[in-house]
Amino acid sequence: MTDVAGLRVGHAQLADADALSGTTVVLAPEGGVVAAVDVRGGGPGTRETDALDPRNLVQRIDAVVLTGGSAYGLDAASGVMAWLEEQGRGVRVGADPAQVVPVVPAACLFDLGRGGDWRARPDASTGRAAVEEAAGTPPGAPVAEGCVGAGTGAVAGQLKGGVGTASVRLASGITVGALVVVNAAGSVLDPVTGVLYGEYGAIEPPTFPAPEVHRAAQRRLAEARAADARPPLNTTLAVVATDAELTRAQAQKLAGTAHDGLARAVRPVHLLTDGDTVFALATGARSLDPRNPVALNDLLTAGADTLTRAIVKAVRAAQSVNRRNGGGYPSYSDLYGARPPLPQPPPYRDRNPDSPST
User: Fold this and answer.
1) Are 310 and 345 in contact (CB under 8 A)?
2) Crossing angle, helix 76-86 and helix 124-135, to 10 degrees?
3) What is the pLDDT of residues 17-56, one digit of tens each?
4) Using CA atoms, how far apart are residues 216 and 224, in angstroms rounded to an integer?
5) What is the pTM of this model?
6) Beta bridge pairs of residue 23
């Protein structure tokens, strides 16, 4: 995500031993970014997403909040909003430059009680800690992945989920990045082969685990499911960003097509017990080729592909969690061992030299 120049990411987790929750903030550069959102899950929890409708007033935003804690956790956005106000960042609503209203879109995922304490959930202080961490990072700083921030209590099926991020630079020089919090009611894992769904169709064919390793992993997952009788209330959240100059309508299209990357990596997806939400951000540092009427297509393709890669990275980076009151969530790496790293895709023009490209 931070390969898109100007964007910064911060995480904060609850310190309670019986808490598995946290908040992740994507912080825009000064002046904000064009933003859009596409919500496809049947049980979303969001804040200020209507402001991103291209028909409405707000043109740019300064931060996006992804948080655990279900609807309670949306309070984390209040802490981000307060921090932005202190910096004088937001929609100016008065003669005094300090008179601003920061617009902070947010979306939440369900992780209530996963650490044992039902009331352990992010609040305004968690959001403030996450945005302060983001603001304190240098440009281009690596983003922590796995069980951090909003991914602290994330679960995919019965497998431990988490935060993942990926990027690609197009032949035009435009960068597309994605950050995802994988917390799906569906599964990321092919039960027949033990391969992550998101690895099918990659640049290189996936490495299949040995049959005995896969059988042992399936037994452990079945045991984990039997020990956890709670309903699969989840939600996968993502931010797809680019340094291209996009209109709000183009950003809306990018958010929508990025859901294709989610559908490739999670099955089933967009259920009534999910609140799957994808934000799109555009910093506007690079222009699309005005001579190419379909120049946006490369970005749309890259957004979906990069989100799929980010989901795979999130699941691979997650660590197993054992709760103090019994039960737990095994990680993919503990079940199947370390896997070969994902190959970096070539620029899109190199993949299909006959297609129009930016």
Assistant:
1) no
2) 50
3) 789 999 999 999 999 999 999 999 999 999 999 999 999 9
4) 13
5) 0.93
6) 12, 67
